[in-house]
Amino acid sequence: MIPTILAVSLLIFVIFSVIPGSFTSSLIADGKGRNDPKVVEQMNKEFGLDKPVYQRFGSYIINLAQLDLGQSFRTRQPVTHMLLERAWPTMKLAIAAMVIAILIGVPLGFVAALKPGSLLDTTTMIAAVSGLSLPQFWLGLLAMYVFALTLGWLPSFGYGDGGIRNLILPAVTLSVAPLALLARTTRAAVLDVMSADFIRTARSKGMNAYRLVTWHLMRNALVLIITTVGLQFGSLMGQAVVIEKLFSWPGLGSLLVDSVSMRDIPVVQGAILMIVLWFLIINTVVDVLYAVIDPRISHG
Amino acid sequence: MSAPPLLEIKNLHIDMRSGQERLNVVENVSFSIGAGETFGLVGESGCGKSITALSLIGLLNRPLSVGQGEILFKGQNLLKMNGSELRRLRGNRISMIFQEPMTALNPLATVGRQIAEMFVLHQGSTWHEAERKAIAALAQVQVPAPDKRVKNYPHQMSGGMRQRVMIAIALACHPDLLIADEPTTALDVTVQAEILKLMQELCDQRGTSVLMISHDLGVIAKMCRRVGIMYAGHLVEERAVADLFRHPAHPYTHGLLASLPVLGQRTLDERKPLQEIEGIVPSIAAFPTGCRFEPRCTRATPICRDTVPGPSILGDGSFVRCYHHG
Ligand SMILES: Nc1ncnc2c1ncn2[C@@H]1O[C@H](COP(=O)(O)OP(=O)(O)O)[C@@H](O)[C@H]1O
Ligand SMILES: [Mg+2]
User: Fold this and answer.
1) From the CA of A160, how many Å to the nearest CA of chain B?
2) Which positions fall inside the ABC transporter domain (chain B) (predicted)?
3) Is A97 helix (H, G, I), strand (E, B) or coil?
4) How confident is the model at residue A156 (pLDDT cuts 50, 70, 90)?
5) Does B176 or A146 have the greater pLDDT score?
6) For chain A, what are the domain ranges?
7) How crowded is the C-beta side of A120, counted as CA atoms within 13 Å?
8) Contact across the interface for B90 and A206, Cβ inside 8 Å
């Protein structure tokens, strides 16, 4: 875990020292600073941007070891504070989207697999392919237009009081891709397990379809489904950036986008670190779940 | 008149549907198994032994299905039974052991539970009772420390142990008929002998009839009194095992026997090489219209190509389907 964090931090430092622009130049571009070499030098000094990259990286790592992520160039607030504020809305969004995706996608894939080639199966799979290929940005705009602007059922953007009404549109939009993928994976997993030898054994024992599914099929299919859920949970963080921007959702994603365009490196560092941490946590949870479900994976 | 046999298969046809086409995979197969009898079914791989076995318990999957014929079990036609009637027979009165012990068990359930299921399904046991019975069942197939072994998962057992578990499952409800589809093919030779002995003992004790499927005539010779030879979906010869070995009637049976290594024989006969049957089993789509063995047969004449030979009775319920048998 620590090597991963070190590597990611180094990568960000290298990237931001290679791409053109810095916090000071972006301030000037915004018209908030004067393009006076003296002022620029003064500001660079203040933010430590005058020091070479390796020195900045060194002091960053030393601070990180003490759980100090530094201060935002822009707001002068401690980065940890800003991140904690933004983490909860993003988690809420990601979890809500994943819950929707699981609750609809898994049963849909299951039912489709029980009657392969049926009308329901074909419809579901066509819908799933569409769901995967439609751009989320466009889907979000459509949802906004229909449910907020035309029907007026839900607020079109913003966090509101943090209640469920504001959450619905961004969460549903974010859930479309993982839902479609889960439906497809579940269908494939169930079909895969159904052709396994031990299912034939189970049938030869004389059990009915209900027992076959609940005693032998579900757990085995679940092992395959959990992989997808884990992967999707991780990549949701990436997709959330777009959705948060679109719905003005005050999460890590929109913080990251704003900070990148301002070259607010400490915040970028911190936000990406949070996302990496999130990946690592999800991976660990998936591994634990595997060990619980599958006796072939030894514990520890 | 003797008592009616336990299982009587009459003119069984198994079709494979692909699009509009209907191919006859298994054609006109008839044989019967008496109570307590062990009947052998032999043939090269791909001859239709497994699908014949699966059809007996209604487990054929698309694109295969029974076209016509009768499968009488204790006088009742299994093909006329509905789903729940069949399920009551499956595992309970007729059970099956498969070739691959590595994949035939559910990897995520303990073997104890997989045995216990049988008692829950067919004897209305509670899970608690069933798990106690599972220990006894495991003891009967001579698995050491059965009270500990029931808690094992399949991957914690060897192939031979797993096949013992399969036998415990199959015999749990004291079925009338056990179908064993190449039960030892995937096992080491030494383990093979143990498993066969175990099956024979348990089935003898209980008077269980066995349909023993194998491509190994040696196994059949050890286990069975009567044997049917299958070739490309046809039952070409049915004989008492002793007669078959002494006077094989069908050219295919001749070939099978000639390809058997006989211990010591090779040195005596000046290292005569084993006789392989030339060619391979044709694919379903390429089955000949007449005798299906005709393309590989050394005795073939034009009539063999045109019409399927009918059974020639050899006495004692034996028959051979060949124009040039002997
Ligand atoms: N599920 C299936 N779908 C299509 N063809 C099958 C299926 N199962 C078996 N067959 C075909 O049926 C024929 C007989 O197979 P099988 O009964 O497994 O042979 P055996 O057990 O004698 O080796 C083979 O040609 C095989 O390709
Ligand atoms: Mg087979």
Assistant:
1) 46
2) 7-257
3) helix
4) confident
5) B176
6) 2-65, 80-293
7) 12
8) yes
Alpha helices in A36-163 (DSSP H): 37-46, 53-65, 79-114, 119-133, 136-143
- Amino acid B298 reads T
Residue A277 Cα, ligand 2 centroid: separation in angstroms?
Answer: 51
Q: Is the CB of B282 under 6 A from ligand 1?
A: no
What atom of ligand 1 comes closest to residue B60's alpha carbon? 1
Cα torsion at B196, B199, B200, B206 (round to 10°)? 180
Residue at B163 is within a domain:
no
Q: Count of domains in chain B?
A: 1
* Interchain CB contact of A115 with B (< 8 Å): no
Residue B143 pLDDT grade (very low, low, confident, very high; cuts 50, 70, 90):
very high
Residues spanned by the domain of B275: 225-262+271-325
* Mutational pocket test of ligand 1: of B16, B27, B51, the residue with most ligand atoms within 8 Å of the beta carbon: B51
Which residue in A193, A194, A205 has the most chain B C-beta atoms within 10 A of its own C-beta, making it the best mutation to test that interface? A205
For residue B265, pLDDT beyond 70: no
Instruction: For ligand 1, atom 1, name the residue with the nearest CA.
Output: B61
Q: What kind of architecture, by CATH, is found in domain A80-293?
A: Orthogonal Bundle (1.10)
- The band of A10, judged by pLDDT with boundaries at 50, 70 and 90, is confident
Structure confidence at residue A11 (pLDDT)? 85
Distance CA B316, CA B33 (A): 14
Residue B65 lies in a domain: no
CA–centroid distance, B181 to ligand 2, in Å, is 7
